[in-house]
Amino acid sequence: AALGAVLPWTLVPVVLTFLLLSGTGLATRALAREALEDGAATLAGCVALFSGYAMFTAYERTAFAELAGGFWIPLVMVFALRTERQGSGVRDQGLGKSTDAVLLAVAVAGAWLSNPTVGVMACYLLAGLALVRLIVVARILGEAGKGAYGVYQQALVLMNWVVPIVLFGLGDVAERYASRFERDGRLAEWVRRQAG
User: Fold this and answer.
1) Per residue in 53-97, pLDDT tens?
2) Positive/negative CA dihedral, 179, 185, 188, 193
3) 178: nearest Cα among 164, 167, 163, 159
4) Distance CA 24, CA 6 (A)
5) Pair 62, 80: CB distance under 8 Å
6) Residue 141: phi, psi to the nearest 5?
7) What is the pTM of this model?
8) How far is the C-alpha of 109 from the C-alpha of 76, rounded, in Å?
9) Helix, strand or coil, per DSSP, at residue 140
10) Smallest Cα–Cα separation from 56: which of 84, 12, 93, 17?
């Protein structure tokens, strides 16, 4: 409706398609920029922009809600990775420095508002990222007691961390268990790996 206020209605679908495809390319480039150099990230954005699905959705079906998912999903990934890497910042650095967490919430809300299917995909994506992160943490911190419970040790360590992290947040859980893992030297190793 906002585009219709400034453009003739015959041009609105064309401009909206252009904006959504441009957003897809730029968001994918931002995601690729987290791990790749500038040129490779730009190529990744172009590949996403000119992928078969994006072109089919834009020119055959003109499903604007699905096209919006093309930039919401990469933005959810970008902000989730930045938030995970930098921490939420709410507790330690003050509320003003937690912009990535706020932007992650805006991206998830935008995904849900543009298309419920995109919102479900974004939430499953976040759950998958959290699960991978928890498995990594459990493997790092669960090295000492491997023999005690055999094959179930990793699952027990993972569950020991999942519930407190979900209820209290990663910062509180790290504080709570820091002294125990400091004794074993595992906390210093984990912090060193996170910084590197």
Assistant:
1) 888 888 887 788 888 888 899 999 998 888 766 654 444 445 445
2) negative
3) 164
4) 23
5) no
6) -90, -10
7) 0.65
8) 10
9) helix
10) 17
